[in-house]
Q: What sequence folds into this?
């Protein structure tokens, strides 16, 4: 099975490449814009790909004729999407259209070719009035990022391809050449330095270990599953509770964590207050079985130690 990953330099992209390179019967094609940022270069093919360049997408897909495309590439900085609307729409919606169209065209051209398109989406397409949510929840985006991601879902659903959408929530993990932090590392780092942090107590999520999300995507690919799947962690927390769990795990001072309200944090983009996912469908259909949040922190800690950080 030839599996092509877009956004292979990102958090989920790297986890997928490292898991797939060890799998028997899988040929992994890693693609991202510019240079390959993964430390280990063996066991997969790397091809530079700018998904916002229609011709580039057509050329690369035509070259490899992947059985599965897992589209992890996206502009995920929610506030940046609010200010660079053109760039975010191009990356999060138009680029998905390019990929879908390229695969549809190749399917017409090559008899017996039936690619499976797996697209990554987000809990941010919901308005956050309640949660946790199942796959039938009606989207109502609050931000421009969310609008782009929802448009991408519509493009995928309207396509003639065999498709799956993997929606996820608050992904955390460690990668090679990491450019962005995550909630666990942010809390740990600040508390270790004795800094006070303000953490919202009115946003609720089911935090997702990047390895678990990668496993969910691979299960969808292996089972050629179609439709929408919630792929997230299983523990439902407020962001404040989440920070406290991190503090407890590392034996750090919880008194440095100060509860605050979303309204007090000045951010360009609105966040949905309550999301989090019900993952029964993924458990039953795919055999998806994510780690607990505490187990996830332990995995992260082992990786930090292995990297000598």
A:
């Amino acid at each position: 099975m030839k599996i092509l990953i877009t956004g292979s330099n990102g958090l989920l992209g790297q986890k997928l490449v490292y898991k797939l390179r060890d799998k028997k019967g899988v040929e992994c094609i890693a693609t991202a814009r510019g240079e390959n940022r993964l430390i280990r270069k063996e066991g997969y093919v790397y091809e530079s790909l700018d998904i916002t360049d229609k011709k580039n997408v057509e050329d690369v897909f035509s070259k490899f004729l992947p059985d599965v495309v897992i589209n992890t590439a996206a502009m995920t900085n929610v506030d940046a999407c609010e200010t660079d609307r053109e760039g975010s729409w191009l990356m999060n919606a138009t680029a998905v259209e390019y990929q879908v169209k390229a695969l549809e065209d190749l399917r017409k051209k090559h008899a017996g070719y039936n690619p499976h398109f797996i697209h990554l989406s987000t809990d941010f397409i919901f308005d956050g009035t309640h949660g946790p949510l199942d796959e039938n929840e009606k989207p109502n985006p609050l931000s421009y990022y969310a609008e782009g991601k929802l448009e991408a879902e519509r493009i995928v659903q309207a396509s003639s391809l065999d498709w799956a959408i993997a929606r996820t929530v608050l992904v955390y993990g460690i990668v090679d050449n990491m450019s962005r932090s995550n909630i666990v590392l942010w809390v740990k780092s600040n508390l270790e330095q004795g800094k006070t942090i303000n953490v919202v107590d009115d946003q609720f999520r089911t935090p997702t270990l990047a390895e678990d999300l990668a496993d969910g995507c691979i299960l969808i690919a292996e089972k050629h599953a179609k439709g929408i799947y919630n792929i997230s962690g299983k523990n439902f927390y407020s962001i404040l509770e989440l920070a406290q769990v991190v503090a407890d795990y590392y034996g750090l001072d919880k008194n440095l964590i100060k509860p605050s309200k979303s309204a007090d944090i000045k951010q360009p983009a609105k966040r949905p207050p309550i999301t989090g996912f019900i993952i029964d469908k993924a458990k039953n259909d795919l055999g998806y079985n994510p780690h607990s949040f505490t187990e996830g922190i332990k995995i992260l800690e082992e990786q930090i130690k292995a990297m000598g950080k």
The radius of gyration is 19 Å. Residues 85-109 form the longest helix (25 residues). The mean pLDDT is 97.
